[in-house]
Every structure is written in C-alpha cells, then in structure tokens.
C-alpha cells in the first residue's frame, strides 16, 4: 500500500468568493473547491458579513476538500488562511460575534475619516505606512462605539476576516503582521502595535488590548480544534498558521517577492503593489503591509474598482432577486470584437465606490444607439485598466523603487488575453500573466513547509516569456483614452455628489 503524500492547504476568503485549495510539495495545485462568500449589502455604503455563515462556509469547503484529498491519497500537513484585510469582525471573550462583521468595501464611517486633520493623517502614514480610511478597524471600532455601544462594550477581540476564520479553526484569537500593518496599527520601526490610529478617531489607547497578539504570518497558532475536526473531517491537532492578508498572499502566490517587483491583481479589489524595504520612511501610498520576509513590505494602492465591475455587468441582466448572469468568458469574447476606445464609450469603474472617492458610483459616458453589449464590456474592462493605471501612477510617484522586470498581472485580467493586452497598452509596460487560478490560497499555503520544518524548496512560478504581453499597436490610442479618462474623472465630483445627495435623501 502506498503511503499518503503530504500536501498543504490554503484558504482564501474574498469578498465575493471563498476557496480552499491544496498544493503538493512543489506548489502544484492538486485540488480546489469554491463557494460564494456570505455577504449582505444593506445599503450602497453598508456591506455586512454574516460571521456564522462565513465560518460554516469555510468548514464546508474544508470538508469537501478533505474528502477529495483522501480519495486521491493525500494527507494534509497544515492549513493557512488568507482573507480581505481591514473591515471589522468583532467577537466577545468566547469568540462569538457581537454584531455582523463589516466588510472592507464598507464606507459607512467615512464621516469619521473626514474629521481627521490632514497633518494627523500624515503622521499615521509616516509611522505605519498607511493612511486613515473608512474601512480601517480603528475607524469602524469608533463607529461601533457611537452607533452600537452595547456591541462595542461586548467586543473583546477586534479581528480581521482571516483572524475570524483562524480562530474558528483553532479556538485561539490571533493576528499577523501583514493584516495589522495594513490596518495602520503597527509602527514600522518597532513592529509593535501603535495607538496612533485609535487616537486619531478618539478611541483610548486601552483599545489596543482588543487586538490579538501579533505573530509572524508563518507562525503556528495552534492545532485544529476538536470541533473543527468534527466539522471538516480533518485530523484534530492539524497545525494552523497565523496566515496573511490576501493582498500579500496573492503577491506571494504570483511570485512577487523581490525588492522592486510590481504585482497587479485584478480581483474584486484592484491591488497594485510594489515590494519595498520594510521601515520608514515608507512610500506615500494608501497602505503598506509587512511581508513574511521581515526585511520587506508591500506598498499598495487598492480599491474595490477592479473585476467586481465585470461581475456586476455579468449579473445585471438577471431578473431582480435571482443569481447568475452571462459568463464573463462570453462577455470578454464579445469585447475582443470591439475596437480600442469602445467607439467612444467610457466607463468609470466604481460600482462599489472607492475609499478615495466616497460618493463615486459606476458611470457610463457616451452611450449611443450604436452601442451593444460588447461595447459595454470593453468599456468596463478598459475603465478598470485605466483606474489601475491611476493607482499605479500614485505608487510610482510615492518614492517606491520599481525594478525593470515585467509587471506581474494576476486575476481576471491575466486569464483573458484581450484584457491582458489592454493592460499592457494602457500601462505602456510589459506585463507577465500569472495564470495560477488560486493565487491567494497558494501564497498562504507556501508558508506552511517552512513553518512545519519540512525540507521543501521554495515554490516557483511560471516566468516563461510566452506569458509576457507587451504594448501593441493600440498603445497610442490608449494614451489618448487615458487622458480623456483622467479629465472626466476629475470632473465627476459634482455629479456624483449630487447623485449621492439624491440617493441618501430619498
């Protein structure tokens, strides 16, 4: 009888979908299961998460994956979890939710951020590498104190999404440096919690005690609890590491580990990061997250302005109250038949808003009777690429040193040839498509062999040149398209604010 082969499990909880995947000792994907992430958009600005339903979803995914692995002769060696950063998952001392979680796309607390003086925001950025914004745990904890004081009082642990899932697996509250630093809660020079973010929103320094002790991303927190083992069919005591923020995990999965590496992730959120030395002075970006390699961090511009826009278009034709939609592959095939610039149709990719544009909404401009669904799709993916460019321009202007290597393109934009070419043309840079389907799960799982003391070579990625997409003949057209995009974007504050007043007054 053949001995079971060890494998490593990564869980990746996104705002839209949750995944559990297993990888062999070389980092090859050997099994993956998916489910929709339980989430409720209460209003345009309030995005709640049912924490119990989320935990049940992850347990169900792990149970499904465990069955597949056992049937194929694999035995799991450990689990790591990655998930969206920021947001707030509040629990009591018994690790029970005290209120619905708040997703990182939520903007209900924008008014609190608006009250922070610019010099104070800069002080936080200098200390932690991250600026205040509406979905930071500190800001949301202040909102909870004001709006739901009983829940605030009952909150023993202010967790991230990844930490909520990890504590459900282990029964132990934990936090890691990548998540906590991206919260603006870790002083980069000392690598310790800082009360500055709490101070800026009027919370006492004692609220730092609500955040779990910091661990390295690859540090083992505890073994799988008896309850989680019963629910998943995985062995009790299976090692669980602290895990990391999904932006960091996906960057690791895409191979963006070296100083100067740029990784563009086209997911629910637009993630545009460059690996820089850890410490101060930090590049002037929206947020910085410490990497598992203690000498580096990921300087990022991020916003929920990426593939979620295509998902919205996919589902927009479905009758109200139903799920489903036109497959993205079908929409992208139609977009490939439309010329650059979508025959004068422009799209601003803000169906989920953006931290830097609180009133923004998804906006088509230039619609005429000649436009069809392929035009709408191409305009959407062009708009997404252009806003990635806007964010990457900020990264380049931040002081971050960028290497000469092709930028890594991952997520939906990498899997589509037409979209990858649009990215290369819009950015004026060569991009290397990373086609691994579960980058976040792979990235966090890649931390397991070292954590477990296994003699395994670091996992590599496919850097074959045939995956490199270079700017093509449409580059000139997209330069002009970008100029128009920027001018239109700058002129939308008034219309968006007017619509926001209409929406909130109705």
Automatic annotation (TrEMBL):
Keyword Kinase: yes
Organism the protein comes from: Microtetraspora malaysiensis
PANTHER family (UniProt xref): L-XYLULOSE_3-KETO-L-GULONATE KINASE, SUGAR KINASE
Enzyme's top EC category: transferase
GO terms, molecular function: kinase activity
Residues covered by the Carbohydrate kinase FGGY N-terminal domain: 8-253
Residue ranges of domain Carbohydrate kinase FGGY C-terminal in the record: 263-447
Catalytic activity, EC: 2.7.1.-
InterPro entries xrefs: ATPase_NBD (IPR043129), Carb_kinase_FGGY (IPR000577), Carb_kinase_FGGY_CS (IPR018483), FGGY_C (IPR018485), FGGY_Carb_Kinase (IPR050406), FGGY_N (IPR018484)
Keywords assigned: Kinase, Transferase
Superkingdom of origin: Bacteria
Protein name according to UniProt: FGGY-family carbohydrate kinase
Family assignment from sequence similarity: Belongs to the FGGY kinase family.
Origin organism lineage: Bacteria, Bacillati, Actinomycetota, Actinomycetes, Streptosporangiales
